Amino acid sequence: MDQKVQDLTVVLFGNSSAVLFGDENILLGQNKPATDAADFPLTVQKQDVSGRSVNLINILDLQESELYLDSVDQAIAHVVKENEIHAFVFVLQLGKLTDTDKVGLEWLQSKFGEGVLPFVMILLTYEKKEECDAITDDLKNNTVLEQLVQKCGGRYRTCSKNMNNQSEMRKLLEKIDHMVSEINHHCYTADLYNSASQLKEDPQDSKSQQS
Asked: Does the predicted TM-score (pTM) go above 0.70?
């Protein structure tokens, strides 16, 4: 059995339309993502999820909203320097992949570097239980979704859109525990972020070091 990680720190990214916010939402409550300048810098919100302490960094919708926000990179850099991140959870709604969703992993890598992928898993939300039951067929029939899951090492969980099921939330945390165990309890750190930033600033230097 995988060891439970104390004080999990989790980044949620993807599409906020895949989530119903509200008091019943165990993971996010009414904490909608920062989508205007007044909400910056990004903050860490401590939540009790199925009896466990989880530090949440909510960057849902940031991929689109950064187009009209200043200092997004600075806000991300600040939150990474202040926190060691155990997991990045890519939130998508079953059957409703948007064009933005399809390039969500590329966007994440553009911000956090290629080394972020081992820390990523997908959370597929559903409105009706029948959608969840058909997940295997969806993965077979939707090549884009299948490729996204494959890029994340096959790591995914499902949960209701309103995130109000304790069992589903507990299994999500267990999946994160398992992922952390697989990478020897390493975290995404400021060092990884700084290395990725240096590669973006001087890609030619990176190529010369590899040759």
From this structure: yes
